Please model this.
Amino acid sequence: MSVEKINGSDGSLERVILQGQGKSSVEIYLYGATVTSWKSQGQERLFLSSQAKLDGSKAIRGGIPLVFPQFGPGELPQHGFARTRKWEFLDAFEHGESMVAQFQLTENEETLASKWPYKFMLHYTVDLTATTLSTIIKYENTDTREFSFTSLMHNYFRVPNISSTLVTGLAGSIYANKVTGADNVSEDRENITVAENEDRVYTNVPGTVSIKYGNQQVTVRRFNFEDVVLWNPWAEKAAEMSDFGDSEYKNMICVEPGTVSNRIALRPGQVVSCGQLLTDDEFDDIAAANSEDSRHLLPSDAEDARTTDKPAGARHPRTTSLGLLRGFAGTIVLLMVSALLGLLAAHSYFHGQTDAPNCAMSYSRPQYIEQTEFGRSWTRYSTKYTLFLYREGLVNTQDEAFRIPVLFIPGNAGSHKQVRSIASSTASAFADMVKADPAAIKHGKIGYDFFTISLNEELTALHGYSILEQADFVNDAIRYILSLYPKTRRQNKQELGAGLVDPESVVVVGHSMGGVVARTVFTLPNYVTGSIQALFTLSTPHNNPTASLESHVEDVYSSINQFWRHGFHNGTLSTVSLVSIAGGNLDSMINSDYTYVGDLAPPRNSLSILSSGINDVWLSLDHQSILWCAQMARKFATMMVQIMDARQQSQLVPLDQRMGIMRNLLYSSIEDDFATRTPSEPRKTNTDDYRLVSLSRSNGIDLDPSSMRASLAGTGSRSKKQKVLHLVALDGENASSGSSGNERIVQILYDPMLFTTVHGGNSAAQLTEPAFLGCKRSSGDAIRSVGADGDTGIEIDVNCEAVPMATATKLPLKRDGDDPTKPVPTLHYVEVPVADMLQYDYVGLEVPVHFSSRGFLHAAIVDRPHQQTQKPGYLRSTKIKATASSQALGLRTRIRLDVPESPFFVFRAKLALQRNKKAVDTSATKFQPIIRQSDGRQFESKFWYDQQTVPLAIHGRGAYMPSDDIANAGTLSQAAAWNGLYIDIWADADHFTDLEVALSIDWYSSLNRTVKRYDMALLALSFVWVCLVIQHQLRTWNSRAAIFPSSLAAIESLIRNGTLAVVLGLGIMTPILQELIAHALQQAWSPATQAAWSNLFMGVRGSGWTLGLVPAVLLVVSLGFVALQALALTMICGLAAWLFATVARWKDGKAIDQETGKANAQYAAGPAVLATLGFVAFVSTAVPYQFAFVIIYLAQLITAARTMALAQIAGDTGMRQLGNYQLGLLLFWTNSLPYCVPELLVWVRNISVLWFEDAPAGHNLVNMAGFFALRMASAHRIVPRLTSSGLLSSRSSWWLHTATYALLGAVVAYAWLFSIRRPYILYSIANAVSAWIAAIQLVELALRLCSALIKPSGRQCPEADIPMAEMDSADTLLHRKQN
Model:
């Protein structure tokens, strides 16, 4: 691209030639600033007569002559003097893909002496790209008087044949025929042809106008010009013109945009810009749509089709549909892609769960007794909240509480009635226990009193102040509950027995946010020390709020997490137990990652577990079913009855014993090293105590009904003995362990049904578990043992004693779809290191004589299978393979997947076990393979039975640090350390040899995990996009053409100019760079620094390229969400504007005059000030500022609709741009609406229950001042352009310009790094940005007032460079339009 200036030294006129891209060029003569040549793609598009005078003797015939200040004949020469004056060449330069030239014309003595004697300045800009040419004139009144003018760009287009040339885009307009004198003629032709002398002035032109010939067309798009002139002299007129060839009319046509039917009026200092965009293409109505080539000129590539007086949809289906589709192709594709991703995510969220629900329904007979005495004297919340005592019908019907108190706290929008399932199950479990053991009451097992509170179904998850209010009420309720028992315990002493003490604490059960309320109780001043010793939480998000829509929630979490973390170290909470149970994959309400409490409390005081790993539950549970699921309720009841002890002041067994009971009941006993032992009762026995002693001739014992019957045959002499002792010799185990280097273990797997007997046809079954013994040889009387084949063996005499062993782990044989009302069959598995048995000669297994007709037992001494550690290739590809050889495949095989703690992906593990053909031929498989997923923290485990493909989903510690107490990050429990994912496989070693595992990512199921963990990210990233949209709009507005594009056009430009690609790249690279930098500086950084670094952006959990997948998806969806908002706002305001304009036209414009006429022109300051003061007073005293923001938003919506209606009626692009500005602010503010919802909902709910006490301090005017100020400032004016040609000096403009973009850039950066975790801060940021823009407008207003005040002195403050229509009042617009 280049610029050539020809000085005319050879006697020719001076001219400038611009060479652009793609063989494009333009030639401009300084004489008249006339464009005489425009070549696009190497082809000339303008007509220049061969007879044209290029010597300055008269106006140049052809190209683009400029008509000003008069169109046609009049007091001045034909078409005014601008086309016959020499213009000043200012500059020519390259701008992006454009070449730009600028010219200027001002008054001189000749013009001042003419019939139009005004001072003026015309600034002319010619902008050339590969396929477009834009010409814009900025008209400025530099006089002290108002003047008016008409103006036009007299385009001469070259055509191959006028007879085959079509002009489109004028249908539906009105024209005056200057040849025939006809006026107000309606143009009905969609395709206009010229076959005679034509000279028409078209008004009310609906959209773009195109000149089509062959397969080519040139499209003319107007900017601030109201009219279009169509002209061809034809033969008779051509012959009369000396500077026009007689037959040249056949190869030209004039399509001239201008304002000629009305005059443009400018007040002193006022400026208006008008122009056109010429586009050369191949039958593409809007070739330059939203392209970077023309974005600096027009607000949108399809703007003209949307912002003219009449929609061209019916008359111009080709222009409207094809033009708009092509003009917004990027946005349409974005909406389609984001909609597809959103629908897939939603479908995955609701239907793509990896676990199948299989809960049995629990039933109860609830009775709720309101505690009416718990009134105002006890709590100030007596009119807002209520306390009830639960009773189970037919089981516990007393109206008074005298047992062990339990308080249930419902969660977000929860009901007090949700206690019924766990209370009913606990009451039934207690009744069954007493029925089986009446003496249990003497040991403090007296049952529970379940209290439950009604919290008015408040939205606790969204409102931090409600958490504090509810916690305050809970403390009052606990004081009241404890006050009941001294009296009731004495009254029921006979039933309860002696030795009981009055309770000093209450067991608390919290569901969902009720658990957070319960933990908050400890931090309040009215908490009675020691009044809570046990806290059970169900599906409670302990570490982070589920929805950070307001700062109070975050503050509460920060406070309580810090308190709890330090409370166990300073002794405040040393006797408190905290149990967190969560539902896992099926819980769509909260992220189960946040239920882990290992980072908040030490292992001595806490445990965390997902329901899928709880013995006898083995199910994932949704947010509500964790309360009513029969399996879960029974397990909870069993735990509650085992830990009660009314002889203690806490009413529970001591802490260590309590935690041990709960761990044994909830956890599977499989540990990483299988070294945990449980104490055994001291017991000794010898050979004479058994009916049969069997000594295995190998390293294993295999029992089934047939072998047990065979071995007992012939033992009648010892029939009174009810047990059998099976022995395995340990001879040589010590040596073999030392020589091989492999640890030897005893594996025991059995079906408990083998030892279950049914007595006398009764359905009651008795289960006797086998005992594990260590035996030594004795010198007493020996007996002859029996071998595995039934033959008598050697003489043997042993003494045995019980040894500590790991609690048998239950392995559920549960398939999806099994009847949930039936018990789940299980196998039991135990592992013991041989190293713990080396002081004995034999391993002894004691089993009962009575056995059933089915089941098996297998025990063997084997090498511990090597734990295979695999680094999954999904970080580079998507599959791994892990193989265990037949020698290593024992009863249990463990594979550790060295995966990061990244809970964003669901894996599909496909297992292939090779069968041993010889074993298959000889006997049947005892059991099908059992698979278990677990982690090293016992937080999550899951079982599958007889499945070849299983889904593996990780619940880690969430995306962010589990507490805001980052300064104490180094004090986190070491038990929380992540050590990968474990897969345990139990298979019949006699029937299976090789094992192969293939791992792949389940992309579809992974989508719902992204939704759960990053639902708030949609708000934060949408705000980032909206800021980029505003920045693009302001950048375009501050460009030379002074265009404020629509929000949709700005989004389209962000897609096309590469911003979307850049942001996507940043989204993908940010977490990867976080991980790389954190890894590189791991040794240099403190734990607090590492935690703070990991908490940036989306939080880092994991490693590898997959870290960038989640941000990329969310960024696309969030931009689509913003585009959808912009489309919805445009449609809503457009519909309202159409209705408003229709009513106005129906009333002949009176509605506009009455509502927006002089009221806009002469602003009524008095009423406005009074209204403002009233509004401020209302917000300061009666309503929260969030309510005020909603009012401001609705007022802005109405204002935008009215502005668009004015633009339709007046046909003025300036008003249209003002509407774009107001809609842009609406889009910017739309993303702040969600942060107002919590406070408004709580405020409305409090009013509904007549609660006015202790209302949160929501009357801070600062929190809505920015929105309010910008709402007032934007009602009539666009933000001033920050250019040197405006009100401010060049230096001031530069500083404001730089500061504004720096502010928006800083906002984007801050929102990018911090707001995903805390999105509520975006409201304050939006308020601050609004205040900044409002301040700029106030500065402009002050300077305009300055101009008005000093005008009488002869000086003036130059006004801003904004379109004229934006400065005129509505009645002036209508007057100018209608006259």
